Amino acid sequence: LSGSFPNAQLNKASELGLRNQVDRSQGEVLNYEECALLFYNALTANTASGSAYGSSLGFTVSNGQVDTSSVMLKSLKGPFVAGDTVQLPFVPKMVYRNDKASESAELNKYDVYYYSESLQTLWVYTRRAAGRITAVSPSASAPTSVTVAGTSYTLGSSAVASQVSSLNGGGVGEVVTLLLG
């Protein structure tokens, strides 16, 4: 650092990219968005060893971007299919229903849901596809996708694939309701 406090520190922060998109001068208050940008910039800034600081904290950082999905996926639980009653291990602060923000955390029978306890977030999917299976792929005995009403759907688990398999009486011609989520 060269110069006197606080200009030396502010100049170094700019040099490291910490102040990118943060247009405040000495003594000005940062708003919430600017604090988030400052934190994000710190995660993407390179350390003396040349690696991104966020990498040392367990984040995936590549091309100057933090892979936020990797953070979320570490804490994501699901998919689950709601039964008659569901007791979540927390009260969600954020709820998304079919990818749109929602006020209601209500789960109805057969809703597909995911949650992150650490993010206190619940994702609920109510979409379904019903009809007759017209094709399975790659084989009737070990399907990974089915075609219903002209649309191909990837099967989400080996348990579902087993139910649709010709080895268990499923397959082409069966009438199904697919829970999409």
**Rounded Rg:** 24 Å
> In whole angstroms, how far apart are the ends?
52 Å
Structural class: alpha+beta
Q: Give the helix level as a range of percent.
A: 10-25%
Strand percentage, roughly? 25-35%
Summed up, the helix count is 5
* Main sheet characteristics: 5 strands, mixed
Question: Low-confidence spans: pLDDT under 50, at least 5 residues?
Answer: none
- Total E-strand runs: 11
Would you spell out the secondary-structure blueprint of this structure?
Blueprint: H1 7-16, H2 32-44, H3 53-56, E1 61-62, E2 65-66, H4 68-75, E3 76-81, E4 94-97, E5 100-102, E6 112-116, E7 121-125, E8 128-137, E9 145-148, E10 151-154, H5 158-164, E11 175-179
Parallel strand pairs: 4-7
Antiparallel strand pairs: 1-2, 3-6, 4-5, 6-7, 8-9, 8-11, 9-10
Provide a compact summary of the structure.
This protein has 181 residues and is α+β, with helices and mostly antiparallel strands. The chain has helices at 7-16, 32-44, 53-56, 68-75, 158-164, and strands at 61-62, 65-66, 76-81, 94-97, 100-102, 112-116, 121-125, 128-137, 145-148, 151-154, 175-179. The strands form three sheets. The protein has a five-stranded mixed beta sheet with strand order 3-6-7-4-5. The chain has a four-stranded antiparallel beta sheet with strand order 10-9-8-11, with no helix packed on it.
